[in-house]
From TrEMBL:
Protein name: Uncharacterized protein
Keyword annotations of the record: Membrane, Transmembrane, Transmembrane helix
Organism: Streptomyces solicavernae
Biased composition (Pro residues): 1-18
Transmembrane annotation, as ranges: 27-47
Domain of life according to the entry: Bacteria
Region spans: Disordered: 1-20
Amino acid sequence: MPAPTHTPAAPAAPPTPQRPGRIKAELPWWALALPTAAFVVLLSLVLDPADAHAVSGRVPLLDVLVQLRQALPF
């Protein structure tokens, strides 16, 4: 049974004239605001010296490697 074809409801808008060699890109406001806000929040978490604590002698990289070894099936 053939599938029905759909025709567009309205014809496509004619292309707008542009300068040759230029690409027109329009982004919504949040496309720049959200990554900027996330960067500022993460940077403030990293740079806050009040939350800095002394290391208890354990190596964090070693903990990660132990977790990886336990997760892998060999």
